[in-house]
Every structure is written in structure tokens, then in C-alpha cells.
């Protein structure tokens, strides 16, 4: 379990950016953290694996306290992060070196490292680029490399911080569903940070962040159909939710839905 | 008018990474159009816009601006930059000035305008992006929110008063409210007589903002025309690897049951259809 308990955090000399924040993620669960720019999403990502330390409250990873320096190594091994801009986390010269970097750091035997790299490269379909220099790759390819270099460490929890927001829709969809499947298959608990409600539709649970604290949590249908509430928090709703809601209000359908086929059926 | 005649661009021609980024591009851009350039990653979009103000020279073909070949050695770069303003991806990464004013004034200063003229242009540019000069001019551009930064960066090109403003994914990385604000202000430029050319990965943006759509696939223009004419052909949209905008996807499912279902640009039009149907 990755647990945030009553967290308060402020950058030096500034106001609380995270206030009284509590929520948890179980292994295998895919949780979307939805909030507008500046609501504190990226700060939460950095708190989760100990890059930042909260001033009040505790974050536990399977019982380990992330603020405890002697547990830092274990915490970072358990919780991986992938950021928005892959260029910010590249280290190696070639794709393979970059993916191997983390494995060398945990002293994995070479043979096992090669095995893991081969496996993850196949899943993410990046095998053809392994010998390429990183600067020759497109944004979507680079993001896959960044994801591979974190997945290869086999973390128990993963934080994805707006990983698709710089990608085109096809790559976005491809990466989103690939990542979701890998994490489900490997029982990884995920905090998927996004401002894109279309992705949140496919989560197990949504945590809505506003002004540094959780404003609401629930299943996608419970959150995303609250179009006006989300709008007030500066969060857009999926178009299907907007249409569904309006038609429901007008009495044309009996119940709002997030499923397109379902909506069309209701309209017939 | 900006015209590309038989333009091709080849990257790393003599290495194993050789790539023909653009092939035989022919294009005319007037000053009063809103044009969206779309295409998969690697289809040549960014290469294409780098040609428009001479940052990149074509390996074949010519780029003609108001009758002049912009890559002719006798043409002054400044004259091109004055007319064609390019805003790159994440332009706020290139901020360097201490104040918003200096950031936006950089272009006009370089072009040698008087102090009064520069001030007037900066204020006008900021206002046209929905920013209030009095409260922002003296602030550090680095202290602004993401959406404000992006708008300041765009204003710093608008202050040059280009005939055509070219933007590479102006809303990438922006959230909902940031996107809407940026798009509305970009669209406003059109009413001020500035041509707008923008790259987008968001087909909903393309369908809502653009009058004309240019679709690139593997370095070639595969469609140039009204967005509706492109998106109505769903199989072709998929073939070139693009996303089906939600209103089009909706129509695909709905038209089986509602044969008169119209082509809609956004969810409002869809709702309108069902409301008017109910009244009947």
C-alpha cells in the first residue's frame, strides 16, 4: 500500500501547496489523480518517492516511512516515477544504456539485466531502437524509453506525471493503454497524474485534487458525470459526459453514461 | 502570400539515418486564413513550419513570400522575420529577459523601432493575448503560471506584427482553461488581419478552429481543404494515423439510427440536434 496520511507541504518560504492530503493506493490498483495546472499534482509525485519530504504528515510505502533516510533506497526501489518530459530523465547515450542504467545501480547480474531489457523492449515495441542515440527518437518513442527504464526496475508502485500530455493522440492512447495493461498484468499500483479526463475514464478510481487537497474521490462514473462541479475546479469533462448530462437534464435519456455505445442505445 | 513550390527536405542525406522529411510540397498560404497542420509524429509538420520563415532551407524547391524567394542570399533575414512569426513548441523554455516587458519588446527592439512604438506594440501584443500590461509588464516572466507564460511567449511574436503567425502545438501541455484561453486569443489574431498557421495533435482543436486543414503523411500533403471534408471520410483519417474527433466518432455510431444526423464540430451541436429532434 502506498499511503499519504495528512500531508502538508510547502516549498521554502511559500504557502502550503499541499494541505491535509490523504489517500492510498493498493498494489494492482490504477488511480487517476485529476487536477488543473498548479493544483499540486507534480508535488505529490515528488513526495511519493521521497524526492521531496512533507513538513507534516507521513507517506508510507508498504509500511516504510519515506521520510526515514535509512529507508530511502528501499522506497525508491519500490516507487518509480515517469515525468512529463522524457528529456529530463535521460542519462545514457543510447536507448539500451539508458534503460540499463537503473539496473546497474541495483547491481543486477548482467544476464538478468539483458533478459529484463529484452522483455520490456518487446512489450513496449522499442526493440528496433535499442542501439539508437536518444536524440534521434520522436517524443512518443522517447517517452516509451523513459517508461521502459522505470518498468525494468520492477517497482511495486508507479507514479506517472502527465506522461502523455506532450504526445499526439495516437501515441497518447497507445502509451496509456499499454502502460495500464503492463501495470495490471504485473500487479503494480499506479498513481496516474493527468489533467485529461478522457484518460481518467479508464481508471479504477479518481482522486480530484483542488488547491492542494483531495476535493472528491470515487469511481469514474461518480466523478466525471459531475460536469459543473469539475468545471468549477478548472477541470474539463469528457465530451461524452457533457452530452450525456445535457440530454439527461432535458429528459431525453433516463440516466447519464460514460459509454458511447450505451449512450447511443439509450437515444434510440 | 506565402508559397511553397515543389519543396523537399532531406535530413542527414549521406548517413544511414537519411530521411526524406518532406517530398514535393506545394502550398499557398494567404494572410487571412486559419490553417491547421496535422499529421502523425514524424510526418514532417515541424519541418514544414521551419521552412516558412527560412530557418530551414529546402533541399529542393523554393519558398516565395510576396513574390520574393526567401532563401535568396540577397534577401535580408529581418525582412522575412518581420512578416512571418514562428512560435515554437514550449516557447516559454526560451525566456531570457528579466521582465515580461523586455521579453515581449525583444523582437521590435531588434527591428529598430522607436521607444514609443515599442511600448505601443508590447502593450497591444499583451492585450491581444488577454494579458493586462499594467499588472504584468514589470514582473519576471519566470514567475507566471504555465498558461500566462505561454501567452507571453506568443505575445513576443505578435509584437513583431507579422502578416502570418505560425505556431507549433500552441496548446501542448496546457490544461483545459489554459487551452481554451490560448485558442480564443489565437483565433482573435485572424480578426486583426493576421494569418494563423498552427500545428496540432488535437483533432478537436483542428475541427473547431481551422478553416482549412493540411494533412501530412510521410512527408507529403495528403489532404488540403475544409476540415469537414477530411473528417467525414473516417477510413482515410484512420489510414493516415490520425485520431477521430469525438463528434465524428459519435456521428459514426449515431447515423445508423439517425440517418439525418449532421456533421457536428463539437458536443454543443450534438446536443442541439437531439434537443430540436425532441421538439419535433
Helix content of chain B: 40-55%
Number of strand segments of chain A: 10
Helical proportion of chain A, percent range: 25-40%
Largest sheet, spatial ordering of strands of chain B: 6-7-8-3-9-10
The helix tally of chain A amounts to: 11
The order of strands across the largest sheet of chain A is 6-7-8-3-9-10
Class derived from helix and strand content of chain A: alpha/beta
Largest sheet of chain B: 6 strands, mixed
Q: Please identify the structural class of chain B as seen in this structure.
A: alpha/beta
Instruction: Please tell me what the overall shape of chain A is.
Output: globular
Number of strands of chain B: 10
Order of helices and strands of chain A: EEEHEEHEHHHEHEHEEHHHH
Strand content of chain A: 15-25%
Distance between the termini of chain A: 45 Å
Low-confidence stretches of chain B: none
Distance between the termini of chain B: 48 Å
User: What radius of gyration of chain B results from the CA coordinates?
Assistant: 20 Å
Give the overall form of chain B. globular
Describe the model.
The complex is a heterodimer of chains A (268) and B (280). Helices cover 39% and strands 21% of the residues of chain A. Chain A is built from eleven helices and ten strands. Chain A has helices at residues 41-48, 72-78, 95-105, 110-123, 139-151, 169-185, 197-200, 220-224, 227-232, 239-249, 260-267; strands at residues 2-9, 18-25, 30-34, 56-61, 64-65, 79-82, 157-161, 189-194, 205-210, 213-218. In chain A, α3 (95-105) packs across α4 (110-123) and α3 runs parallel beside α5. The longest helix of chain A is centred in the middle third of the chain and has 17 residues, at 169-185. Chain A is globular, with a radius of gyration of 20 Å. By secondary structure, chain B is of the alpha/beta class. Chain B contains twelve helices and ten strands. Chain B has a six-stranded mixed beta sheet with strand order 6-7-8-3-9-10, sandwiched between helices. In chain B, strands 2-1-4-5 form a four-stranded antiparallel beta sheet, covered by helices on one side. In chain B, a hairpin with a 2-residue loop joins β4 (60-65) and β5 (68-69). Chains A and B meet through α6, α10 and α11 of A and α7, α11 and α12 of B.
